[in-house]
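Quick one:
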Amino acid sequence: MNRKDLNPDSSPQAAFGARLRLAREERGWTQEELGEHVGYSGTHLSSVETGRKFPTLRLVRGLDRVFGTGGTAEAFEREWREIRHGSLLEGFPEFVGYEGRAAEIRLYEVGVIPGLLQTPEYASVLADSAVKRRAITPDQARERVTLVAERQAALARSNPPLVFALLDESCIRRPIGGPEVMDAQLEHLERFAELPNTVFQVVPFEMGERRPFNLPITVLTMSDRSLMSYAESAQQGHLERESTSVVPLLTAYHQLQAEAPSQASSVVKIRQLRKGTP
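Output:
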């Protein structure tokens, strides 16, 4: 058999392929035999192992199922997301994987509309701005916009999550991309509030120090009712799974939600802003 030598140091994709080959050979399987387990041809797996093809999400989830690595630090999906979203903050790709499977999503955002609620135009303006600052490349900008669309697709799945969105008033008042982009974005927020699986509230400036959060926070409830939270600093994202740390955040979120104006009042504020009234 013609066996191609692999150099895992040549690229992250090559390292993934080398790891896949090692895991397969430890089981004593041929590429065709592994392919039968994950629903791909041996030829396709050969291309992934040698770095000629980038693995699909369906493939890496199949690998985690076959090798028993799903949900662990060694998950193929986790490595796949780190490779694919290399320009993103550390910890964020792992969070996105959980977000896409969550039963309930509670988010609080400051300054900008959160990704799950962004229009493509709004997301593009933010990404293009990062390119102009030379913080990311044009390819990475396109990747970020694509990721926004992929994350939003989770809201339209057959069993969608319940999404609670608390937005600091700065999110809706900060102009991004000019009047047309902002008006379309605000209109999108109105439509978001009409969905049967969403709750939308604007946290007004007047709440001042009564807000329990000064930075964005997301709390996920998974299908088994386990909790995790995600928050970001300037340098990295942090995914927290310890209930002793997450439960107080959930309590504070509920308190903020109870004190913030209702969804109906928040939608009225959005409409007034679109009309140019204070």
